[in-house]
C-alpha cells in the first residue's frame, strides 16, 4: 500500500464512530464544563496576573477534570481518547488552564498510568485524580531540550540497594511550583548482560515529600502566562526503588510512550479554539461597515474565514480519526499519526489566529480583545510536546524505516546489477511518466469513499502512489544516510502529513453524507478545497525531491546558510556602498 | 345448522388467516378438513372484519368459549370488536398505560392470537386518540402481538410466493405509520421483525429502507421549525419574525405586551401584543428615504408554521424610478486605492454572470411586525414605536393598505353592521 506504517482503507474508512450512549454521556460532561469555562474562568485576569486563581483550580477539581483518563476504580473519569479529545475542545478556550491540565495528566501522570505497577497506581492515582496532588513531567534540562538523551541528572543507588539518590536540576517544568508528584528522568548506571557498565535513563516517581526538591520562581513567559513554569532542583532526593516506573534503564521507552500518547488531543484543542474564533470574528465582520460595505462582503476577508473553516475541519477530522484508531482494540500504535496531528494543528492554529487578528485590524491588536492573548498562547504550540522540526524528522524517519525494510531487498538487487529488476523499474518509470491510472480502492463501484468525493479521492490515490515511488527513489539515492538530509526529510514529512489530512477529511465527509449529518454539503466543499490545495502542494514537494529537479533549491539554501553562519552575520554589502 | 356453524367458525378462523394457511399446508386440523374449508376460503373476501363480526353476532348464544369476560368484545353488539376493547381499557384518561393494557389483554386472551391483523389495524387507528403515536415502545408492543416464527418461510416455494401476504401487509402498515410520524425504529424493532417474518420479507425490507432514508432526511431542512412551538403569542411572534427576516443582526422589539385590564369605570380594556423587527440595514435604508414619498403598511400576510398560522404586516416603500437612483462614487472616498477606475472598458460578455431573468424591481422593506389585531389603531401604535428609532417616519406620510384578516372577517360576520374593510388612506403627520 503506501510506504508509511500502513493504514489499509479498512482502518481509516469508515470514520470511527462512538455509540449513542457514549455520545450522550460525553454531552452530559460537555455542558457543565462549557458553562464553567464561559462564566468562571477569567482568562484576561489569569493572563495579567500570570497565575490561575485557586477558586478556578478548585472548580476544575470539582468537575473531575484532573483525572480525565484515570480509570474509575482509582477515582478518575475513565474517559476514552475520543472523549478526552472532545473535552479538550472546550478546555482549550483558556490556554493556561489547558496547559496546566495537560501537564498534569497528559504527561505528568501518564507514566504511572501506562507503565506503573498496580501498587504505584493504587498509591498515587486516587489523589492525583481528585486533584489533591498535581503532577509534573521533568525531562528538560538546561543542556538538553530536544536532545533528551543527554540529560545529566543522576540517580545513584544507595548502599542498601533500597533507594536511589537523585541529583540534578530541570528547567521549564510546567506545574513545577504546584506539583507534588514528579515524573523525573535521570541517568542510572546499569550493568549490562555482558557485564559492561552503561548509563541508561530511568523514570522515577518523585514526591515532594521525599525532601530535597526545590523549585525556582515562575518564569515570565510570552504566552500561557497563567501556567506555572519553573526550575526544579533535586538535591540528594531519596527515591525508593519501588518508585521506578517500568524497569531500571527502561526510561527511554517510557518517555517515548508518554510523549506519543498525549499529542493527538492538540488537534481537537486547536480546532475548538479556532471554532470559537470564527464565531467572534464573524460577528465583527458582519456588523462593521467600511466604504458602505460590510467587511464580510470583501473577498480577502472571506478568504480568511474559509481558511479558518477548512483548517478547523481538517484538524478535527485528523484528531478524532487518530483518537478513534487508538480507542479501537488491537490497532498498533498510532504515534506517527499523533505526531502528524500535532504538527498540522499547531501550525494551522498559529496561522488561523493570526488571520483572525488581521480581520479585526487595530482592534485585534489591543489587549481589550482576546485575540492577542490567543496569538501568544498558540505560539507555544509549535514548541512544546516536541518541536515541529523534531516531529517532522520523526514522521519522515519512521516512515523511511518502515519503507526501507520492505524495499531494501529490491534496491539491493538492482544495485548489484540484476537486469530483471532494473528493467522492471525502468518499465514502471516509463509507465508512470505516461500517466498511470491508480486504483487503491477508494473510488469506483466498491469504493469506500462517497461518490461526491470522487475527485478528491482520485487526487489522494495519485498522491499516495507517487509518494511511494518518490520514497523508493530517495532510499535508492541516499540509503541510510538520509538521516542527515533534513531538507529532504522535511518535504517527505510534509507530504505525509498532507496525505493523512486528506484521508481523514475524505473519510469524515464520506460518513457525513452517508448518514445525512446537518450541512454535509458544506463539509464536502471544505474537503474538496483542502484536497485540491494539498494535492498541488504535494505534487510540488515531490517534484522538488526528484534528482536534478529545477525546483530543488536545497544546494543553494545550504550554501547561503553556510556563508551566513560562517560569519554569524548578514554578509551582503550595504546597498548604498560604493566601490569608487 | 352444523354446516352453518362450521362455515361461520371457519370464517372466524379465517380472520386469523394464518390458521387456514397452515391447514392448506397440511397441518393437523381435523375439523377444518372437508369442503367447508375450501368454500370458506373462496367465499371470504380480503377485508371482512365487519362481515365476520356481524355474522359472529348470530353465534352469540352458541359460542364455544365459556369465558364471558373475554368475549364481551364479540357480544356487545358493536360492529368493530377491537375498538370496543380500547374503549373499555381506558378507565379514566387515554394514555400509554391504558393502551398497553388493551394490547396485553388481547395477547393474553388467546395464545394463537386469533384476529391479530384486525386488532393491529384497530390499534393503529386508535393510537392518535391515546396520544401514543410518537412512542416507539408502543409500536414495538404492537409488533409483539404477531405470533412469532409462524410466518417465517421455510422452503423455497414459500419464499417465492409471498408467504402470509396479509400479515406482511399488516407489518408494513405498522412501519408505515411509524414512517408517517417520523419515528425511527430501533434494534428491538428489527429483532421483532426478524423473529416474526424472517429475513428478506417485505417488512424487513421496509425497515431497511427506513434505516437508509430517515438519517438522510433528518437534517435536510435548512430552516427547521421547532417541534414544540411556544404558546405565548409574543414568543411565537418573535420566533416567526426572526424566521422571516433571516438576518442575525435584526432586532426584535416588543412594542406592547398583551394585557387585560379593568379600568376605573369597570370596562375591560384589552391590549393586544405588538412585536416588530428591524435590522440595521433596514434602518439605514429608511433613514435615506425621501420623506415626500409615502410608505405603505401592508398586510396581513400569512405565515404557516406546521399547523399554526400567524399573520405579519410589512412597512414598505415604492421602488425609486431610475432617475432618482443615486450611484455617484466620490473619487476621494478611499485614501488608499481608487474605488473607481477611469476606463472605458465594461465587463466582458463571457465574464458577466449577473442574472437577469427573475429580477423584479421591488421596493425596500423597512420593517415588519406581528400584532394581535390588524386594525389601524394597533398598527398606528407600531408606527409610533418605530418612530423612536427612525425619526424620519414622523415626516413621512404612512398609508395603510390593510386587507381584511381572518379575525376581522369573523368579527364582521358576527357584528350587525358587517362592513367590509376597503383600503383606506390615512395621513398621519405628527410632530414629536
Automatic annotation (TrEMBL), chain A:
N-terminal signal peptide: none
Bilayer topology term: Peripheral membrane protein
CDD domains: VLCAD
A Pfam family matched in the record: Acyl-CoA_dh_N
Acyl-CoA dehydrogenase/oxidase N-terminal domain mapped to chain residues: 24-132
Residue ranges of every copy of the Acyl-CoA dehydrogenase/oxidase C-terminal domain listed in the record: 249-396
Domain ACAD9/ACADV-like C-terminal: 451-569
Catalytic activity: octadecanoyl-CoA + oxidized [electron-transfer flavoprotein] + H(+) = (2E)-octadecenoyl-CoA + reduced [electron-transfer flavoprotein]; nonanoyl-CoA + oxidized [electron-transfer flavoprotein] + H(+) = (2E)-nonenoyl-CoA + reduced [electron-transfer flavoprotein]; eicosanoyl-CoA + oxidized [electron-transfer flavoprotein] + H(+) = (2E)-eicosenoyl-CoA + reduced [electron-transfer flavoprotein]; (9E)-octadecenoyl-CoA + oxidized [electron-transfer flavoprotein] + H(+) = (2E,9E)-octadecadienoyl-CoA + reduced [electron-transfer flavoprotein]
Record bears the keyword Phosphoprotein: yes
Subunit-level organization: Homodimer. Interacts with NDUFAF1 and ECSIT. Part of the mitochondrial complex I assembly/MCIA complex that comprises at least the core subunits TMEM126B, NDUFAF1, ECSIT and ACAD9 and complement subunits such as COA1 and TMEM186. Interacts with TMEM70 and TMEM242.
The name this protein goes by in its record: Complex I assembly factor ACAD9, mitochondrial
Organism from which the protein derives: Chelonoidis abingdonii (Abingdon island giant tortoise)
UniProtKB/TrEMBL annotation, chain B:
Protein name: Evolutionarily conserved signaling intermediate in Toll pathway, mitochondrial
GO molecular-function terms, A-Z: molecular adaptor activity
Chain positions covered by the region annotation Disordered: 408-432
GO biological process, one term: toll-like receptor 4 signaling pathway
Key words, A-Z: Cytoplasm, Immunity, Innate immunity, Mitochondrion, Nucleus, Transit peptide
Subcellular location as annotated: Cytoplasm; Mitochondrion; Nucleus
Organism: Chelonoidis abingdonii
Gene Ontology CC annotation, any one: cytosol
Pfam families membership: ECSIT_C, ECSIT_N
ECSIT C-terminal domain sequence ranges: 279-403
Gene name tied to this protein: ECSIT
Family: Belongs to the ECSIT family.
Amino acid at each position: 500500500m503506501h510506504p508509511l506504517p500502513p493504514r489499509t482503507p479498512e482502518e481509516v474508512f469508515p470514520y470511527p464512530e462512538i455509540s449513542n450512549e457514549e455520545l450522550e454521556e460525553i454531552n452530559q460532561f460537555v455542558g457543565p464544563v462549557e458553562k464553567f469555562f464561559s462564566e468562571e474562568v477569567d482568562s484576561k485576569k489569569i493572563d495579567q496576573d500570570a497565575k490561575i486563581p485557586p477558586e478556578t483550580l478548585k472548580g476544575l477539581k470539582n468537575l473531575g477534570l484532573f483525572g480525565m483518563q484515570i480509570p474509575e476504580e482509582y477515582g478518575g473519569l475513565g474517559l476514552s481518547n475520543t472523549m478526552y479529545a472532545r473535552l479538550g475542545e472546550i478546555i482549550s478556550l483558556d490556554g493556561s488552564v489547558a496547559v496546566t491540565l495537560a501537564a498534569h495528566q497528559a504527561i505528568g501522570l501518564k507514566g504511572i498510568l501506562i507503565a506503573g505497577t498496580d501498587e504505584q497506581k493504587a498509591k498515587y492515582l486516587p489523589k492525583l485524580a481528585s486533584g489533591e496532588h498535581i503532577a509534573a513531567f521533568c525531562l528538560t534540562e538546561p543542556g538538553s531540550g530536544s536532545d533528551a538523551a543527554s540529560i545529566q541528572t543522576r540517580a545513584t543507588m544507595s548502599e542498601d540497594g533500597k533507594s536511589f539518590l537523585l541529583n540534578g536540576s530541570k528547567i521549564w517544568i510546567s506545574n513545577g511550583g504546584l506539583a507534588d508528584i514528579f515524573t523525573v528522568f535521570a541517568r542510572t548506571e546499569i550493568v549490562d548482560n555482558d557485564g559492561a557498565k552503561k548509563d541508561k535513563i530511568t523514570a522515577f516517581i518523585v514526591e515532594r515529600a521525599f525532601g530535597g526538591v526545590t523549585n525556582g520562581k515562575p518564569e515570565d513567559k510570552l504566552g500561557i502566562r497563567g501556567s506555572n513554569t519553573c526550575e526544579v532542583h533535586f538535591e540528594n532526593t531519596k527515591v525508593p526503588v519501588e518508585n521506578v516506573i517500568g524497569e531500571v534503564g527502561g526510561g527511554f521507552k517510557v518517555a517515548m510512550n508518554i510523549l506519543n500518547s498525549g499529542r493527538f488531543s492538540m488537534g481537537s484543542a486547536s480546532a475548538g479554539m479556532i471554532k470559537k474564533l470564527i464565531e467572534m470574528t464573524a460577528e465583527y465582520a458582519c456588523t462593521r461597515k467600511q466604504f458602505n460595505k460590510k467587511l464580510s462582503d470583501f473577498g480577502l476577508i472571506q478568504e480568511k474565514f474559509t481558511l479558518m473553516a477548512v483548517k478547523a475541519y481538517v484538524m478535527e477530522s485528523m484528531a478524532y480519526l487518530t483518537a478513534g484508531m487508538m480507542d479501537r482494540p488491537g490497532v498498533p500504535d498510532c504515534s506517527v499519526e499523533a505526531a502528524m496531528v500535532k504538527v498540522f494543528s499547531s501550525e494551522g492554529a498559529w496561522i488561523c489566529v493570526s488571520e483572525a487578528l488581521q480581520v479585526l485590524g487595530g482592534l485585534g491588536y489591543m489587549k481589550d480583545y482576546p485575540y492577542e492573548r490567543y496569538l501568544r498562547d498558540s505560539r507555544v504550540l509549535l514548541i512544546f510536546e516536541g518541536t515541529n522540526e523534531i516531529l517532522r524528522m520523526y514522521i519522515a524517519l519512521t516512515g523511511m524505516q518502515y519503507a526501507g525494510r520492505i524495499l531494501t531487498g529490491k534496491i539491493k538487487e538492482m544495485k548489484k546489477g540484476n537486469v530483471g529488476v532494473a528493467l522492471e523499474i525502468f518499465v514502471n518509470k516509463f509507465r508512470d511518466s505516461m500517466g498511470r491510472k491508480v486504483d487503491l480502492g477508494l473510488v469506483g463501484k466498491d469504493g469506500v469513499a462517497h461518490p461526491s468525493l470522487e475527485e478528491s479521492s482520485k487526487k489522494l490515490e495519485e498522491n499516495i502512489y507517487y509518494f511511494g515511488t518518490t520514497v523508493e527513489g530517495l532510499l535508492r539515492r541516499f540509503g541510510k544516510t538520509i538521516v542527515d538530509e533534513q531538507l529532504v526529510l522535511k518535504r517527505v514529512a510534509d507530504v505525509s502529513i498532507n496525505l493523512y489530512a486528506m484521508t481523514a477529511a475524505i473519510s469524515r465527509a464520506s460518513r457525513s453524507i452517508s448518514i445525512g449529518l446537518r450541512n454535509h454539503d458544506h463539509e464536502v466543499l471544505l474537503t474538496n478545497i483542502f484536497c485540491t490545495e494539498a494535492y498541488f502542494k504535494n505534487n510540488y514537494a515531490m517534484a522538488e525531491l526528484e534528482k536534478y529537479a529545477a525546483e530543488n533549491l536545497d544546494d543553494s539554501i545550504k550554501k547561503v546558510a553556510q556563508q551566513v553562519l560562517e560569519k554569524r552575520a548578514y554578509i551582503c554589502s550595504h546597498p548604498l556602498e560604493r566601490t569608487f | 345448522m352444523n354446516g352453518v356453524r362450521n362455515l361461520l367458525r371457519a370464517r372466524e378462523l379465517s380472520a386469523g388467516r394464518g390458521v387456514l394457511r397452515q391447514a392448506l399446508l397440511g397441518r393437523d386440523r381435523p375439523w377444518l378438513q372437508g369442503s367447508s374449508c375450501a368454500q370458506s376460503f373462496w367465499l371470504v373476501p380480503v377485508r371482512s372484519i365487519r362481515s365476520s363480526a356481524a355474522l359472529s353476532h348470530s353465534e352469540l348464544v352458541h359460542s364455544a368459549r365459556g369465558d364471558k369476560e373475554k368475549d364481551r368484545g364479540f357480544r356487545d353488539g358493536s360492529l368493530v370488536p377491537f375498538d370496543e376493547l380500547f374503549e373499555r381499557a381506558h378507565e379514566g384518561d387515554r394514555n400509554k398505560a391504558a393502551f398497553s393494557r388493551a394490547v396485553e389483554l388481547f395477547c393474553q386472551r388467546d395464545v394463537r392470537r386469533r384476529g391479530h391483523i384486525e386488532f393491529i389495524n384497530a390499534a393503529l387507528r386508535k393510537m392518535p386518540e391515546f396520544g401514543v403515536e410518537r412512542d416507539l415502545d408502543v409500536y414495538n408492543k404492537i409488533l409483539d402481538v404477531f405470533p412469532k416464527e409462524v410466518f417465517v418461510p421455510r422452503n423455497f416455494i414459500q419464499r417465492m410466493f409471498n408467504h402470509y401476504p396479509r400479515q406482511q401487509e399488516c407489518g408494513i402498515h405498522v412501519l408505515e405509520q411509524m414512517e408517517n410520524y417520523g419515528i425511527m425504529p430501533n434494534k428491538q424493532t428489527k429483532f421483532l421483525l426478524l423473529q416474526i417474518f424472517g429475513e428478506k420479507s417485505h417488512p424487513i425490507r421496509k425497515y431497511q429502507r427506513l434505516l437508509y432514508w430517515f438519517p438522510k432526511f433528518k437534517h435536510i431542512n435548512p430552516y427547521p421549525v421547532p417541534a414544540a412551538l411556544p404558546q405565548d403569542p409574543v414568543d411565537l411572534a418573535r420566533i416567526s419574525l426572526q424566521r422571516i427576516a433571516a438576518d442575525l443582526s435584526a432586532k426584535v422589539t416588543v412594542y406592547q405586551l398583551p394585557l387585560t385590564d379593568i379600568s376605573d369605570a369597570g370596562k375591560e380594556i384589552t391590549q393586544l401584543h405588538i412585536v416588530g423587527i428591524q435590522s440595521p440595514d433596514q434602518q439605514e435604508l429608511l433613514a435615506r428615504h425621501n420623506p415626500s414619498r409615502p410608505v405603505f403598511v401592508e398586510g396581513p400576510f400569512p405565515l404557516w408554521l406546521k399547523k399554526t398560522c400567524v399573520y405579519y404586516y410589512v412597512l414598505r416603500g415604492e421602488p425609486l424610478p431610475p432617475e432618482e437612483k443615486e450611484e455617484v462614487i466620490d473619487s476621494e472616498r478611499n485614501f488608499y486605492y481608487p474605488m473607481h477606475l477611469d476606463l472605458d472598458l465594461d465587463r466582458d460578455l463571457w465574464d458577466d454572470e449577473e442574472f437577469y431573468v427573475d429580477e423584479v424591481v421591488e421596493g425596500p422593506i423597512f420593517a415588519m411586525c406581528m400584532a394581535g389585531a390588524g386594525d389601524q389603531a394597533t398598527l398606528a401604535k407600531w408606527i409610533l414605536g418605530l418612530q423612536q428609532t427612525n425619526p424620519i417616519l414622523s415626516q413621512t406620510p404612512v398609508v395603510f393598505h390593510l386587507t381584511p384578516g381572518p379575525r376581522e372577517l369573523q368579527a364582521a360576520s358576527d357584528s350587525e353592521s358587517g362592513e367590509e374593510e376597503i383600503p383606506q388612506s390615512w395621513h398621519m403627520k405628527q410632530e414629536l
